[in-house]
Design goal:
Blueprint (H helix, E strand, L loop, with lengths): L4 H9 L7 H5 L3 H10 L2 E6 L6 H8 L7 E6 L8 H11 L1 H4 L9 E6 L5 H10 L3 E8 L16 E6 L22 E5 L9 H6 L5 E5 L9 H6 L7 E5 L3 H14 L5 E5 L6 H9 L6 E5 L7 H10 L5 E5 L9 H7 L7 E5 L7 H8 L5 E3 L8 H10 L5 E3 L8 H10 L5 E3 L8 H10 L5 E5 L5 H10 L4 E4 L15 E5 L2
Parallel strand pairs: 1-2, 2-3, 3-4, 4-5, 5-6, 6-7, 7-8, 8-9, 9-10, 10-11, 11-12, 12-13, 13-14, 14-15, 15-16
Antiparallel strand pairs: 16-18, 17-18
Length: 495
């Protein structure tokens, strides 16, 4: 009996992400057409050698429900107009992608790493009035007045092309308007860049700001404009930003932002004066703190200051943390933290004996634990901690060389709620114990491990017992989340 289109679409929608249109096309053209109609995400890698604007427009029209498109442009030709042509092709295909006007679907577009011009962006705003997320690269000089035409845009991610010659200011004009942006991510801003003042002034509903490898926030007049977007910020991420701009932003947060709930500082620079001042003077009630600081720059007293200042902390992530005293010092300071902590990460850290056992007894509500890259972690202490952490749902133990099969036995006995486990590069854990763990963990939805440790029994049981499960090899993009791990490992996704 031949299935109706609606039922067949539902079947195709449930196919694992590893399936491709080539597999479906072997059945019939009808199946291929219905398969494409179920796709909501699409990732393409294009170059002038394998794509023309017309062919792209025709191809995209075959996906009527497409809501997310990711395009990677091959090549580094700065004078090429190919990225602009791709953007215009995508805009021209929109009429065939339109869904019912009574229920417009949000759309996300990512076009990297080659920069685009302002004119194609204006065309895109006309064709995609409901675009909510945009990820692009821009030439210098630049301006952001084109954002006024994206009435639904909530998330903007922009990387700026590095230049080594003087760049003249972009044309300034009098444009009134308030943007609805909630998330703003910049990469590569240079000190002295023009064209950002208007953007800072117009972002009054911003909730999250991420700056990566940024040496400034604009030209000499941008400081006062920048303050406008800080009032209601909830999340800030500063990643590899030079010390002067990092400290400047942290001090502006102290004076102008009391709503901050999440702060991430990933810094390769040794001076942490600005961070210490933020901890001492901040008026916000942080719920999440993530610090990846140059080794030796933060001390145990800094951690005690964090415990005293941010009493409502729910997530604490430390990487390369330097413990400068022995005995009970670190234990005392960690115990000063709120016992409501739900996420704890001690990545590439050294600690005194007995700390993990004590932390397990203190933080009994932990749901996420990351102890990755602690090569010399004592297994007995880790197992002792697990006995108290009965609510763990996510556990990461990559490159913990001291762990053996006994750790997995302890996990399925103590951690009945565990859904995600990462045990890559743990040579003491073998395939037999992985198989035993998989067969005895009823809530497991994802396990990350070397392919050689996934036995035939584990693979067959997972695929048989989870009818909606999927097997995703590393290096093959997953529509739910993109990841680029080592090619010799794999993840079993079971939800």
């Amino acid at each position: 009996m031949d299935l109706c289109d609606e039922l067949l679409e539902e079947v195709l929608r449930r196919l694992p992400s590893s399936s491709s249109s080539a597999d479906v096309s072997l059945v019939s053209k009808r199946w291929l057409r219905l398969y494409r109609s179920t796709r909501t995400t699409l990732s393409l890698r294009l170059s002038p050698d394998n794509c023309t604007p017309h062919s792209l427009s025709s191809f995209l029209s075959l996906f009527p429900n497409l809501s997310y498109l990711s395009v990677t442009i091959n090549g580094r030709d700065r004078v090429s107009s190919f990225p602009d042509q791709i953007l215009l092709s995508f805009a021209s295909s929109r009429p065939k992608l339109t869904v019912a006007s009574s229920c417009p679907k949000p759309a996300r577009l990512c076009l990297q790493p080659e920069p685009v011009s302002h004119f194609p962006l204006l065309s895109l705003s006309t064709s995609f009035p409901h675009l909510t997320s945009l990820d692009i690269a821009l030439h210098r000089p630049f301006n952001f007045y084109w954002l006024l035409f994206f009435h639904s845009l909530k998330n903007l991610n922009v990387s700026f092309q590095y230049v080594f010659e003087p760049v003249y200011p972009a044309c300034e004009g009098n444009y009134d308007g308030e943007l609805k942006l909630e998330t703003l991510s910049f990469s590569g801003i240079q000190r002295g860049d023009h064209g950002l003042n208007w953007l800072w002034k117009s972002c009054k509903t911003l909730k999250k700001l991420q700056l990566t490898c940024c040496g400034g926030i604009g030209d000499d007049t941008s400081g006062s404009s920048f303050v406008n977007c800080l009032k209601d910020l909830q999340e800030v991420e500063l990643i590899h930003c030079p010390r002067p701009i990092r400290d400047e932003i942290l001090l502006k947060l102290v004076d102008n932002c009391a709503s901050l709930s999440s702060l991430l500082v990933n810094d390769r620079y040794a001076d942490t004066t600005g961070l210490r001042q933020f901890i001492a003077r901040s008026r916000c009630n942080l719920r999440k703190l993530d610090l990846h600081i140059f080794p030796g720059c933060l001390r145990e007293n800094d951690l005690l200051a964090v415990a005293d200042k941010f009493t409502g902390l729910l997530s604490l992530r430390l990487c390369d943390f330097s413990f400068d005293t022995g005995g009970e010092g670190l234990k005392t300071k960690m115990l000063a933290m709120s016992n409501e902590l739900e996420e704890l990460a001690l990545v590439y850290c050294n600690w005194e004996p007995g700390l993990l056992t004590t932390l397990g007894q203190k933080f009994r509500n932990l749901k996420k634990l990351d102890l990755s890259f602690n090569r010399w972690m004592a297994e007995e202490e880790f197992i002792s901690m697990l006995v108290s952490c009965k609510f763990l749902t996510e556990l990461k133990l990559r490159w913990c060389e001291g762990l053996t099969n006994a750790s997995l036995v302890s996990m399925f006995k103590s951690c009945k709620q565990l859904e995600s486990l990462d045990i890559r590069d743990c040579p003491g854990i073998g395939a037999e114990s992985v198989e035993l763990f998989v067969l005895n963990s009823s809530r497991l939805r994802q396990i990350t491990v070397e392919e050689s440790k996934i036995s035939h029994v584990s693979r067959s049981w997972l695929q048989r017992s989870r009818s909606n499960g999927q097997l995703c090899f590393f290096g093959v993009p997953n529509p739910c989340k993109l990841c680029y791990p080592k090619p010799d490992t794999q993840t079993m996704y079971l939800s």
